[in-house]
TrEMBL record:
Signal sequence residues: none
A GO MF term: hydrolase activity
AB hydrolase-1 domain: residues covered: 91-188
Keywords: Hydrolase
Protein name (record): Alpha/beta fold hydrolase
InterPro entries: AB_hydrolase_1 (IPR000073), AB_hydrolase_fold (IPR029058)
Pfam families: Abhydrolase_6 (PF12697)
């Protein structure tokens, strides 16, 4: 008597291979196929699962009614950091040109990067860096801590113009930052030394900048490269400090850098 002869008609039907019974695991090189094995006591079929190599050409076939379970990694958050003055206790207002410039940048990044990457435009209480109190740094640090209080696994990217780039470099010393875009950075004192080795850096500087020193920024990028940072310095020909010359080039390159750095996490 064969094992099938010991089963009633219902059990005999159950051990037959159903249509579309391929199951797929996360490794697309392996297909899981149910193989019925009859247990001696009671004749109850035991559905074991045996890995079977997938066909060498093309992806594994999706079975009828089966859909792959996806757990996408969350896209990064972006903090846009406004420029300012070396020292000023004047309250920061939305109509100040430093805020207007970075507000336009934040709007452009929202459009270019899409809704899956939240953009946060940081507003300082005062207009100045204000050493030794470091008001701008403390304000940005408080915003970032609030955003990461309930960590959802998002990486953080910082985009800073002028003084905002200095805020970004110092934030990288106390937070896990995935990437920094420094636009015409005010880095007077080896500020790139604060950036950890795991952070990618893009520096864009206009060759006609008279407010901050593009050559000093370039030397600091080289210094960071010698420490092992993935850092790049890009000259913007004939551009000044305020990103008024071909502003959308600044916006486009910033968005491309963030998207590329974010996509590398999936490789």
């Amino acid at each position: 008597m064969t094992p099938d002869d010991r089963l009633d008609p219902f059990d005999r039907f159950a051990v037959q291979r159903p249509r579309g019974a391929d199951f797929h695991c996360r490794d697309l090189s392996v297909r899981i196929r149910p193989c019925p094995v009859v247990v001696a006591s009671g004749g109850v079929p035991d559905w074991s699962f045996t890995p079977v190599p997938a066909k060498p050409h093309g992806p594994a076939r999706r079975s009828r009614g089966m859909y792959p379970v996806r757990h996408p990694m969350p896209r990064g958050r972006v903090l846009v950091l406004t420029g300012g003055k070396v020292s000023s206790r004047q309250s920061s207002r939305p109509w100040h040109l430093s805020r207007v410039r970075t507000a336009a940048l934040a709007m452009s990044l929202r459009r270019r990067l899409g809704p899956e990457r939240p953009i946060h435009h940081v507003h300082y209480r005062f207009r100045g860096w204000n050493s030794p109190e470091l008001d701008a740094l403390n304000d940005a640090d408080r915003v970032l801590r609030e955003l990461t209080a309930h960590d959802d696994g998002r990486p953080t990217y910082l985009v800073g113009h002028s003084m905002g780039a200095r805020v970004a470099a110092h934030l990288a010393a106390i937070h896990d930052i995935a990437g920094i875009v420094a636009l015409a950075p005010w880095w007077p004192d080896h500020d790139t030394d604060f950036i950890s080795a795991g952070c990618r850096v893009l520096v864009m500087h206009g060759t006609a900048d008279r407010w901050t020193d593009p050559e000093s920024a370039r030397r600091q990028v080289v210094r960071a490269q010698h420490r092992g940072l993935d850092a790049t310095w890009t000259a913007v020909p004939d551009a000044g400090h305020f990103m008024l010359h071909r502003p959308f080039d600044w916006h486009r390159r910033t968005a491309e850098f963030i998207a590329d750095t974010d996509d590398r996490r999936y490789v």
